């Protein structure tokens, strides 16, 4: 696949939402057979073969499919649209079975197929937004270091975007041709072919590797991104293999006797052994003046043996330096990589910021970090995003956290942590009274861990941002957390609790919490089940004050016309407001027109509304009755007093 231009594919027609089955919650007396099968694309790793995956926990986010049969009706209620099937394996909590060696950074789409004897569903073609989402995910995958990229190299952003667009266009055309001849006519085999072709073509591109060198000779000095008195940064594009000669040219300024560099950034490079040997001598000569070192993504395309040796050389060169900031992200470290940096890590007693993002941090690797770093007394930022830590690894991390009383920013999102690890982290966080930013997204904490975390929240008086989406909190956990936040964090600016199976039952607690947060700038409650009743209470909580609010996301919440109208009216007059997202709901055509009319003088403030289902997939007698009396519902709920 070359990186040339291609003709854009015309937008596909809108697609009805496919059902989201949850066989564990269906009426046992129901005669129709409903099965869900997961078809992931092959994962890019040392073993390239279709990956059999299974969900972790009771209900992995995004595949939390159907709540069962609705009261008063027999219809299935699909609350996720086709576009939501394209999610990272990590975001969905999909764990590869033994034998798969993929890195946690893989961002390959997953398809969900339905079988139902009672339903007739068209799965093809996907919506334009779904297709764009696939392009974005493939593009990010092509630029993310992985096991294969060590051998073939990692594409730069521009090249990856072009290749991803062409891959999707070819796969879409192939699947569309197949769909025209598809005997069953529901599009399921076209969806599978779309996935298969996308995966096959992406593997071809990865094995082809970057083509930047074919376009002309690269001036290695173009890598220098920032070059002034204190900062030496060679992370600029293009990403290239650094030879010994390149290293001599690039690092020459560091050899000047009077240089005052205190920060170096070698990210977006690929150091070979010869280049590392040159760098080792130069870095050893200036290590005593360094306080910030960024070695993220600096061995892309190297074999494991070479990568570990390069890491070891840099570690020895920097041994004994007194750092405040260390970034080793995006290097596929694992335990071996962590230990390759032993010499450096063992001498760090004054670190204030440590980043180990997307590093394959397993249980053993997390324990190695705990073992090697002698002190975290001064640590203020600790980030472990997108790793394979699990419960045991989380327990090791919790010990780091417990010894970091000055911690202000903690990120442990997408790390495959379940309830046991979540409880350990929550208990440890109770000692971090200076915490300002907490990000635990995309784990499977469950209700029990949420209850423990709610106790820790009472100590966070300085908290400004909290991200708790896709933690399987449910109503009980969400209510406990909302009540705890109401009594703490007076300056909270960001509240994110998306994808937690929250219903209208928890809305009063959420509304009371929101009312108490007058500095709120961003609210995300997407992919829950708040419906009109919950949406109206949230809207009422936002009506008064909240002058700094600029974004509200209430998408995919089974909201109808009344809830949509209340939300629109609540945010319209906010002085700095930028975006209301209420897409993916059950808003009628008339309701959509009404919302657009509310924003007629500022249309940029309302997000797309094209994925709303006017009839609602769970349309039954109860829903019809609500629609008939929506004005009365709105009047009654808005008249309620939210308890502060």
TrEMBL record:
Location(s), subcellular: Cytoplasm; Nucleus
A Gene Ontology term for the protein's cellular component: cytoplasm
Pfam families cross-referenced by the UniProt entry: LRR_6, WPP
Residue ranges with Basic and acidic residues bias: 22-31
Segments of this protein annotated with the region Disordered: 1-31, 603-631
Annotated WPP domain residues: 120-215
Acidic residues bias spans: 610-631
InterPro entries (alphabetical): Leu-rich_rpt (IPR001611), LRR_dom_sf (IPR032675), RanGAP1/2 (IPR045203), WPP_dom (IPR025265), WPP_sf (IPR038214)
SUPFAM superfamilies reported in the protein's UniProt record: RNI-like
Keyword terms of this UniProt record: Cytoplasm, Nucleus
Amino acid composition bias (Pro residues), ranges on this chain: 8-21
Listed name of the protein: RAN GTPase-activating protein 1
Organism (species): Abeliophyllum distichum
Species classification: Eukaryota, Viridiplantae, Streptophyta, Embryophyta, Tracheophyta
């Amino acid at each position: 696949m070359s990186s040339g231009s291609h003709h854009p594919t015309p937008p596909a027609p809108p697609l009805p939402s496919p059902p989201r089955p949850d066989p564990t919650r269906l009426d046992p007396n129901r005669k129709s057979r409903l099965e869900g099968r997961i078809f992931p694309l092959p994962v890019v790793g040392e073993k390239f073969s279709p990956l059999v995956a299974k969900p972790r926990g009771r209900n992995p986010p995004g595949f939390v499919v159907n709540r069962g049969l609705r009261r008063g009706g027999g219809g299935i209620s699909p609350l996720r649209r086709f576009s939501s099937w394209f999610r990272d394996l990590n975001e969905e909590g999909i764990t590869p079975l033994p034998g798969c060696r993929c890195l946690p950074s893989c961002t390959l789409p997953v398809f969900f197929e339905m079988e139902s004897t009672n339903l007739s569903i068209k799965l093809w073609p996907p919506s334009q937004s779904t297709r764009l989402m696939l392009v974005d995910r493939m593009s990010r995958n092509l630029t993310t270091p992985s096991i294969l990229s060590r051998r073939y190299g990692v594409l730069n952003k521009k090249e990856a975007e072009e290749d991803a667009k062409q891959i999707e266009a070819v796969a879409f055309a192939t699947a569309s041709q197949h769909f025209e001849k598809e005997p069953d006519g529901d599009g399921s085999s076209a969806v599978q072919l779309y996935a298969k072709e996308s995966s096959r073509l992406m593997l071809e591109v990865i094995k082809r590797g970057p083509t930047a060198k074919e376009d002309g000779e690269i001036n290695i000095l173009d890598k220098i991104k920032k070059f002034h008195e204190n900062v030496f940064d060679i992370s600029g594009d293009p990403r290239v293999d650094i030879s010994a000669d390149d290293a001599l040219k690039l690092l020459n300024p560091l050899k000047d006797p009077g240089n005052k560099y205190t920060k170096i950034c070698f990210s977006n490079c690929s150091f070979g052994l010869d280049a590392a040997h040159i760098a080792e001598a130069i870095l050893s000569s200036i290590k005593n003046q360094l306080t910030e070192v960024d070695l993220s993504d600096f061995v892309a395309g190297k074999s494991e043996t070479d990568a570990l040796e390069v890491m070891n050389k840099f570690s020895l060169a920097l041994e004994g330096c007194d750092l405040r900031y260390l970034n080793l992200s995006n290097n596929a470290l694992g335990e071996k990589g962590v230990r390759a940096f032993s010499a450096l890590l063992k001498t760090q007693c004054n670190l204030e910021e440590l980043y180990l993002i997307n590093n394959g941090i397993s249980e053993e690797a997390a324990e190695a970090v705990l073992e090697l770093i002698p002190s975290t007394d001064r640590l203020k930022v600790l980030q472990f995003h997108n790793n394979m830590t699990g419960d045991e690894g989380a327990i090791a991390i919790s010990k780091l956290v417990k010894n970091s009383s000055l911690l202000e920013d903690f990120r442990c999102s997408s790390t495959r942590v379940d309830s046991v690890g979540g409880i350990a982290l929550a208990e440890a966080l109770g000692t971090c009274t200076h915490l300002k930013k907490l990000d635990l997204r995309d784990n499977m904490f469950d209700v029990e861990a949420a209850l423990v975390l709610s106790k820790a929240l009472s100590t966070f008086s300085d908290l400004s941002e909290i991200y708790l989406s896709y933690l399987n909190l449910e109503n009980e956990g969400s209510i406990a957390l909302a009540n705890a936040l109401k009594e703490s964090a007076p300056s909270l600016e960001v509240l994110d609790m998306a994808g937690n199976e929250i219903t209208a039952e928890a809305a009063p607690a959420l509304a009371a919490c929101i009312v108490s947060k007058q500095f709120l700038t961003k609210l995300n409650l997407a992919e829950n089940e708040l419906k009109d009743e919950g949406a109206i209470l949230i809207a009422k909580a936002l009506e008064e004050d909240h002058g700094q609010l600029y974004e509200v996301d209430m998408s995919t919440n089974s909201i109808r016309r009344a809830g949509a109208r209340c939300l629109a009216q609540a945010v319209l007059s906010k002085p700095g407001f930028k975006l209301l997202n209420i897409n993916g709901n059950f808003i009628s055509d008339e309701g959509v027109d009404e919302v657009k009319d509310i924003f007629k003088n500022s249309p940029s403030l309302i997000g797309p509304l094209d994925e709303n289902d006017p009839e609602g997939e769970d349309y039954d007698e109860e829903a019809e009755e609500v629609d008939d009396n929506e004005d009365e519902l709105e009047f009654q709920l808005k008249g309620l007093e939210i308890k502060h």
